[in-house]
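Hi D.,

Good news: the full-assembly prediction came through. Inputs first.
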Amino acid sequence: MAKYVLEYLWLDGYTPVPNLRGKSQVKEFDSFPALEDLPMWGFDGSSTQQAEGGSSDCMLKPVAVYPDSARRNGAIVMCEVMMPDGETPHPTNSRATILDDPDTWFGFEQEYFLMKDGVPLGFPTGGYPGPQGEYYCGVGYKNVGGIARTIVNEHLDLCLDCGINHEGINAEVAKGQWEFQIFGKGSKRAADQIWVARYLLQRLCEEYGVDVEYHCKPIQGDWNGSGMHANFSTKYLREVGGKTYFDALMAKFGENVEEHIAVYGPDNHKRLTGLHETQSIDKFSWGVADRGASIRVPHSFAKGDKWQGYLEDRRPNSQGDPYQIASRILKTIAEVPTP
Ligand code: ADP
Ligand code: MN
Ligand code: MN
Ligand code: MN
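Then the structure:
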């Protein structure tokens, strides 16, 4: 037997976007615990906007477990929040709204800023750095200066150690802005991994006195905002596809613009302006290789008139909840019958 430190993570009840919360418990196991071995746990919902003080218990139901290389015998336990009966999902439990399908694949591109003392890393005190241009995938101190690269590389290692399907990193268009990509087969799996990757990044940055800013437009003016492009494919899209089905799917996305925008992250009107590689928030469009469209159709999708593969919804923003985003995309897909 050995003692394991289990960090139970959940999403609180703050709106419009939840915060991560976590607390540790120590338990003995023969070896690294499987999901079935992990007990439910409780917390004080009155401190997380999930309950009233008079009846404050909420339950944590483990739904995924990852080894945590930063702690001795550490495990990260992603949880859903349940009502005190342990069986009914709490109203804030967005993961429980996903109609999951292991054949639906999601790839999220999480953009964010690293901030020190309220300004992006590399911004001079009291001023602005040179205009955007050389920062994207930039190299060298003047472009990605400070401890940014140390942080993003350590974050990558932590994710890989955890078994998270981290796919890569790039410095983004604005100074101090970065991106990582996570891909998962099964929408819950992909969305769980985004939340755990966010957790690892925030926890790592505590050590550096750096904050992770997920707001979609933290710097006013001619500075890119942050998105979380949602790339998705169903088995049908990957294996059958076709222009008729694609047109029907895009028509349905077009009918549901408000429903999608409602869960694509707060303040998105500040980012989806039609500038900086975005479409306006009130318009819907798709285009092959078009970074100014709501949905970008990769060349590989339209190639040979097959209309097959994955699509990129560019509207979700960096602060969005991937559970709500995936849930909404799957709902729209489910409204389109496959021939
Ligand atoms: P870009 O910045 O040009 O949009 P990225 O490489 O950053 O491209 O992101 C592409 C994303 O598409 C990745 O997250 C990847 O996992 C995802 N992706 C690739 N193939 C599929 C697929 N078949 N289904 C879902 N997502 C996919
Ligand atoms: Mn990208
Ligand atoms: Mn990007
Ligand atoms: Mn993209």
